[in-house]
Amino acid sequence: MVSFGELREHLLVARLAGVVATSREVSLRSYRLFAARDPRVLLGIDPVGAWQQRDVIELMADRCGVSADPRCVSGHDVIDPDRTLTALDDFADRLAEVARRGAPVVLGTGHPHRLLGFYVALADALSAAGCAVLTPAQGRCVDITTRFGLRTYNLDYVRGVGLVRERGGESPGCEPGAHTHSPLPVRTALAGAAEAGGVLPELVIGDHGWVCGAGQLGFEAIGLADTDDPALFVGQAEGCVSVVVPLDDGVRSDYYLPLTRYVLKRACLSQ
Length: 271
Known about the structure:
Elements: H1 4-13, E1 18-23, H2 24-35, H3 39-42, H4 53-63, E2 76-79, H5 81-101, E3 105-108, H6 112-128, E4 141-146, E5 149-158, E6 161-166, H7 184-195, E7 203-207, H8 208-216, E8 221-225, H9 230-238, E9 243-246, H10 257-266
Parallel strand pairs: 3-6, 3-7, 7-8, 8-9
Antiparallel strand pairs: 1-2, 4-5, 5-6
Helix pairs in contact: 2-4, 4-9, 5-10, 6-10, 7-8
């Protein structure tokens, strides 16, 4: 079991929090694009508020610990590890409640190269606790606009965790899948579940478009987000996203293992 103090130290050493790899320039660009309502940064949410760039900076300073000074325009961003730990506790508490009721869930990631193992562990634990881990619309095509133009992907699941693969790429069921911030995969999954007349999830767990896309449709959603992902935090501020954990989402996959153990232990889901 990882103690609170040990996990805090790990966050700093692994640069999951503290000084992170995400640059201030990249984050500010995201905040500017969010204020301009660029769909690449909205990730599927439709903000109610005006959310000018200064508003987004202030929100991210409050939720993540980044600098609130708009004149700070270079260097590496900073995430307050105590904010990360507080959010991890909230995240684990939501898992515990869902597990207690045996409620159906959907899990998905746009960062399968880094975060798939984290979500797979959650899916395994929730399934063992009696939750139905749903995998709707598996194999369905998803057309996503990328910087290379419109690309067609296939929705797939790895041990209960949704992701997309390029068509003609790896065989279904293999890792790791493609990187995407699009909300279209979760919209496709939820639409597939509804069309089939089956069970709908009571909770969606993931990152990027999986969280924002589900939250915008009225599903409870919780997830992880970096300092250049303001959409999840705006969604949380406006009430369509339940919990967001601020951390660097691009470090080595094994660096997330202590977080996994901590969350599962707090949620009483340890195997």
